[in-house]
Amino acid sequence: MTSSIPVPQTPSFRLDGKRAVVTGAGRGIGAAAAAALAQAGAIVTIVARSAEEVRNVATSIGGGAMASTLDVSDLEAVESFFAAQDPFHILVNNAGTNRPKPMWDVTPADYEAVLGLNLKAAFFVAQACAKRMIATNTQGALIHMSSQMGHVGGPNRSLYCASKWAMEGMSKSFALDLAPHGIRSNTIAPTFIETPMTKPMFEDHEFRASVLSKIKLGRIGTPEDLMGAVLFLASDAAALMTGTSLVVDGGWTAE
Asked: Which residue of the set 82, 160, 165, 174 is catalytic?
């Protein structure tokens, strides 16, 4: 008599009952990340500085999505926000900025703006979220929106590269600190994504052509290209992934 062989079951990509928070979610990549999590069943809190934008995104997503106005560069406000919330299972640490220019033109104000938001604010958002998770024995995932520029260099991107390379190292160290608490930390490293913030850059035909010459799949990314990566890293399907980077770059860094 033939004995049956147990068939492995794919871990679930569903997030039903999970609480998620996405920063910089008023538009673009953040809004897409929030939508991906909500569509998988998570209860999503959408955070950005613009009250109108986060309300609009929350209304559009539905599914119990909540809007909260927060400037993540205000560290006291960040700490108060997370302390007042039920612990989140998922953080998408997405708020960021860029001031592209040659390194010799960078000012201290440029440095503070880019590193202050992309690295300092991201660090303390993750810290506040993780502290609340640890205090309540809540396991889950931190997902930091990095960049292909956290793996390579780029002209006129000295500040941005500095912030994203630092984010990559930061996430690896987070992973080591948080693993005993059942909290994973990973990054997503996209190529150029066309969003309301980046769209004006692509109106420069020479710049657009230079970008397309490096993306081997032949097109500029869209926020939708990152939704699957967000969902994967947030879900049980990525249960053994921590301290690494999911590069979504159309082949840019392969060469």
From this structure: 160
